[in-house]
Design goal:
This protein is of the alpha+beta class and about 110 residues long. Strand 2 and strand 3 form a beta hairpin. Helix 2 crosses helix 4 and helix 2 packs across helix 5. About 20% of the residues are buried.
């Protein structure tokens, strides 16, 4: 099986996925564009979060720690944890794993 080719850009990713091989000379390739900004805005809309809460939740879905997220967003891990507290209340969950799972499911359903 051939793996997808991902090209990282400043505002997102282009993902090329071979869909089907008719023969050795012809290929059908699916191109999907993923945008970090679009996903953050979707989280904002779906869960009625602030922009910063959406950014924090987005990076949680990517498996980042509070320290990593703080570095990415230019804030302290303590501030990230405070945002997470608000996110948990708004999503009706108690853990970052539950928040990430719920967010990932919703984002997957709108792609």
């Amino acid at each position: 099986k051939i793996m997808p080719l991902t090209i990282i850009q400043a505002r997102g990713r282009l993902i090329f996925v071979p869909a089907e091989m008719r023969d050795d000379e012809q290929w059908i390739v699916l191109l999907r564009e993923e945008s970090d900004v679009a996903q953050i805005e979707a989280l904002m809309t779906i869960f009625k979060l602030t922009m910063r809460e959406s950014e924090v939740l987005y990076w949680v879905t990517k498996g980042k720690t509070s320290r990593d997220i703080g570095d990415i967003l230019g804030t302290s891990p303590r501030t990230v944890n405070k945002h997470l507290e608000h996110i948990f209340v708004k999503l009706g969950v108690e853990t970052r794993t539950a928040a990430a799972s719920l967010a990932a499911t919703k984002i997957r359903n709108i792609k």
